[in-house]
Amino acid sequence: MSTSTETSTETHAVVTNEFDRDTAVTLREPGVYDADLSAGWTIIHAVNGGYLLALLGRALGHHLPHPDPFTISAHYLTPSVPGPAVIRTETVRTGRTLSTGQASLFQYAEDGTEVERIRVLASYGDLDALPDDVRTSATPPAMAPIENCFGASDGPTPQIPGSSAITERLDIRLDPACVGWAIGAPSGKGEMRAWFGLADGREPDALSLLLTVDALPPTSFELGLKGWTPTVELTTHVRCRPAPGPLRVSITTRNLAGGFLEEDAEVWDSADRLVAQSRQLARAPRG
Amino acid sequence: MSTSTETSTETHAVVTNEFDRDTAVTLREPGVYDADLSAGWTIIHAVNGGYLLALLGRALGHHLPHPDPFTISAHYLTPSVPGPAVIRTETVRTGRTLSTGQASLFQYAEDGTEVERIRVLASYGDLDALPDDVRTSATPPAMAPIENCFGASDGPTPQIPGSSAITERLDIRLDPACVGWAIGAPSGKGEMRAWFGLADGREPDALSLLLTVDALPPTSFELGLKGWTPTVELTTHVRCRPAPGPLRVSITTRNLAGGFLEEDAEVWDSADRLVAQSRQLARAPRG
Predict the structure, then answer these.
(1) Within 10 Å of residue B160's Cβ, how many Cβ atoms?
(2) Which of A281, A283, A286 has the highest number of chain B CBs within 10 A, making it the mutation to test binding with B?
(3) Can you give the residue ranges of the Acyl-CoA thioesterase-like C-terminal domain (chains A, B) (predicted)?
(4) B60-113 per-position pLDDT tens digit
């Protein structure tokens, strides 16, 4: 029946973009959500940390009385793998304009016991309730026009070594000044800049920004280091609901020392607003 | 007896500097620490958020197998007041080089129930175990020599309005470029820079850096805003054990928007090393 099929399609359309489909969570009981970590968001074998943060962020946004993550701090404990997971949330405090919650994502050991992967503390609010005042001295990153930037399928292919399923989910166009690493000529600067979108055209929102801040190649590549940069802790501030259209992401590392480095990310929307700021502490690659 | 008195003095000397005395915690049972929030670290009536963080940091450093906070994220829930408090800690994960813990500071309502003030998630390590590699592009903040900077007792008195006991605990010398607010002529820039020490000469360490990142007047003063800037969340990375001597602290706000602002702090030691980085999300003053 044609009508029935259309209705079914419409119903599914809400969740058939890749991001919303793969960050869906199912309420098991109050505060407890089942999830399935998709193999589609992996870098080599590791599940992307921003994707995981978005899953936790979605569960907290459902559990808390406020919808949007204003500040969310994640400590990464053990490596996640594709497959089933459970997210346990807790309301820490509720207030008029902000509420604070905690959430942990667990996966299952072979004997069925839960192994904690990530723990987050977050304060949520309502971005639509904020006043319009903007007094910022921040300016968008200097970035080449998107048509001059390099995507995964372009000339000097800036791909993360190994097979990375996540590259098919994302439309990342790296600024030409930050692709030297892909041809063996890293700039030596701790900078990575790119235009960012979801490959299927799903527009950005507060939740997808949690993915965006941790989706670019690591700055360590442009510092001439190869190998993995595992996140210890990642804190993201969502400052404004993003307008539709491509985002600009700028990531900077200033201090690589003692085997650790920080990555500061800024995300700007198509209306030239600073929509998210994040900082992470990561282990530096040995290479 | 002279010898006995000397011994007693020596014993007390370990805890008679103001910072260690006032951030002391007493083990009540495994994971639970009693504390007393000192009125000596208040700004008007509010207990300083960095002082509170140091208390939580001390309890976690005792509870976890690693001594030093590498990254500690604090969400501030309700205003603390001078008086008794209890800190409850939890080991989240222990690893070879890092361990992760959680802690909450509670105070007591009139009926004796515990009210949570702050909750933190933190990953601890051992700063002495880090390699010496430093590849940083960060440079110390441009700062006037300490003798040209302004302390609480100097000419154009840069004091926080109201009676602030904490000013007697700290030796803060503000850069002349950042004291306009004190004479009604704020620079309009979201910048605050100062030399920092503890007034009684207690040298900096990893724990006292948790105080240092939140001890300067808020950048909002130089943006021409008066009133309070309550912290929602503060994350601090301790990157290096500080050398003895005065610290330099630089705090920057780039984005004041929607009633919130971020404050990014950097702390440099006398050996020109970047010893701590922090970022907080705070509510902007209305004024």
Answers:
(1) 16
(2) A281
(3) 159-282
(4) 999 999 999 999 999 999 999 999 999 999 999 999 999 999 999 999 999 999
Q: Contact A136/B260, CB-based, under 8 Å?
A: no
Task: List the 136-175 stretch of B: residues with Cβ below 8 A of A.
Answer: 136-138
Q: B191 to chain A: nearest residue by CA?
A: A137
Whether residues A162 and A255 fall in one domain: yes
CA-wise closest residue to A282 among A262, A253, A267, A254: A262
Whether A277 and A156 share a structural domain: yes
Residues B76 and B162 in one domain: no
A52 and A172 together in one domain: no
Last-in-domain residue among B127, B160, B179: B127
Whole-angstrom distance, CA of residue A262 vs CA of residue B23: 28
Give, for B61, the enclosing helix (H) or strand (E).
helix B49-63
A103 belongs to a structural domain: yes
Instruction: State the DSSP H helix or E strand holding residue A258, giving kind and residue range, or none if neither.
Output: none
Banded model confidence at residue B26, pLDDT cuts 50, 70, 90: very high
Domain boundary among A81, A96, A127: A127
Structure tokens at B284: 């902007």
A279 vs B131, B239, B279: nearest CB: B279
Q: Among B136, B190, B253, whose Cβ lies nearest the Cβ of A257?
A: B136
Tell me if A235 sits within 8 A of B233, measured CB to CB.
Answer: yes
The one-digit pLDDT tens for each residue of chain A (287 residues) are 333 333 333 344 457 799 999 999 999 999 999 999 999 999 888 899 999 999 999 999 999 999 999 999 999 999 999 999 999 999 999 999 999 999 999 999 999 999 999 999 999 999 999 998 888 889 999 999 999 999 877 754 545 555 689 989 999 999 999 999 988 999 999 999 999 999 999 999 999 999 999 999 999 999 999 888 999 999 999 999 999 999 999 999 999 999 999 999 999 999 999 999 999 999 998 76
ipTM score for this prediction: 0.92
CATH code of the domain containing B75: 2.40.160.210
Q: Is residue A137 part of a domain?
A: no
Q: What is the pLDDT of residues A215-250, one digit of tens each?
A: 999 999 999 998 889 999 999 999 999 999 999 999
Burial (CB < 10 A; 0-12, 13-18, 19+), residue B278, is buried
Q: Cβ of A92 and B119 within 8 Å?
A: yes
Count of structural domains within chain A: 2
Q: What is the pLDDT of residue A227?
A: 85
Q: Is residue A140 part of a domain?
A: no
Q: How far is B138 from chain A (nearest CA, A)?
A: 5
Pair (A114, A207) in one structural domain: no
Are A108 and A152 in a shared domain?
no
Nearest to B116 by CA among A93, A124, A70: A93
- Beta strands A260-268 and A274-283 are antiparallel
Q: Can you read off the two tokens belonging to residue B250?
A: 């630089």
What range defines the domain where residue B76 resides? 15-127
